[in-house]
Amino acid sequence: MKLVARGVTLEWPRRPLVMGIVNLSTDSFSGDGLADVEAALAKARGLVADGADIIDLGAESARTNRGPISEEEEAAQLVRFIERWKSAALLSINTWRPAVARAALAAGGHILNDIGALPTDENARVCADTGAALLIMHSVGVPKVAHTHVGYDDVMARLDEFFAEKIALAERAGVSRDTLILDPGIDFAKQRGDNLRIYRELDRLAKFERPILLPVSRKTVIGDVLGLANPAERDAGTVACIVQGMLRSAAIFRVHHVRAAAQAVRMIAAVEGVA
Q: What is the pLDDT of residues 248-267, one digit of tens each?
């Protein structure tokens, strides 16, 4: 299995990649957002030094208790960062709005992390035009609107249907399958039981033969299980989810505390004999 992102090719089997989170906004749920571009650049460089292979850059929080900023403001923040970014680490653009995606990828992003569940083929066409990889996340409904009431009789069956449908949509839009990444969307339109079942049965998604990104970091389900209201206190639970993910074929982990995650990944990879 391989992943192609704007001329960069990664091949599996290999150790999982670590994706570090940089929020160009003070509205981050985890309390680690930075509105200043220079401060965000410094943070991103530090995450790469700590072991991040990918930086996931967002300027619009997915929090549902805040209204969205304008597309113009979101795009401008992202482009200011991208134009100053000098690193071998891949740059992932976290947005669901096609105009923002087009501007950010034109400036130099490698991956589009579409947290909008790909309702149309617009973002897929942006990736087809630029050669950027497309990360498809499962969710329900419009981003920044709470969907905490949503549950499933069989969440894994729903993920099967969703990814089959969205992969077909992306390919019809001209996207190569080698550029696709799949994300089961932990905490997005899911209940505690749904999230825990995804962790248990993640390797069922291996049949799509695409890298699976597991967004484990400081999730609400960790807080629910461990009784931790403060997201910043959930890093030990995050590492536990990384261990489970590595046992279930996860290829990429999206995290806030990169150093702990990268060390956990390297240690488990060494035990498993994976470079």
A: 999 999 999 999 999 999 99
Q: List b or e across 89-102, with b for residues whose CB sees 16 or more CB atoms inside 10 angstroms.
A: bbbbbbbbbbebbb
- CB distance 48 to 18 below 8 Å: no
**pLDDT, tens digit (0-9, with 9 covering 90-100), for 156-184:** 999 999 999 999 999 999 999 999 999 99
Residues of the chain with pLDDT below 70 are 26-34, 61-67, 143-149
**Separation in Å, CA 112 to CA 4, 92, 135:** 12, 6, 6
Give me the catalytic one of 102, 190, 210, 254: 254
Reported in sequence order, the residue ranges of the chain that DSSP labels E, i.e. its strands, are: 2-5, 8-11, 17-23, 54-58, 90-94, 111-114, 133-137, 180-183, 213-214, 252-255
Tokens of 136: 């498809």
Query: In angstroms, what CA-CA distances link 50 with 1, 127, 257?
Result: 26, 29, 9
DSSP string over 199-230: HHHGGGGGGG-SPBEE--TT-HHHHHHHT--S
Report the predicted TM-score, pTM, of the whole model to 2 decimal places. 0.92
What percent of the chain has a predicted confidence (pLDDT) above 90? Answer: 84
Q: Which residues sit opposite 4 in a β-bridge?
A: 9
- Rounded Cα distance, 115 and 138, in Å: 8
Number of domains in the chain: 1
* Among 24, 5, 3, CA closest to 13: 3
- Return the pLDDT at 36: 87
CATH number, domain with residue 258: 3.20.20.20
Of the listed 15, 125, 218, 219, which one is catalytic?
219
Full domain range(s) for residue 85: 2-272
Active-site residue 254, yes or no?
yes
Residues 35 and 43 sit within 8 Å (Cβ to Cβ): no
Note if 207 is an active site residue.
Answer: no
**Integer Cα distance of 116 and 110 in angstroms:** 18
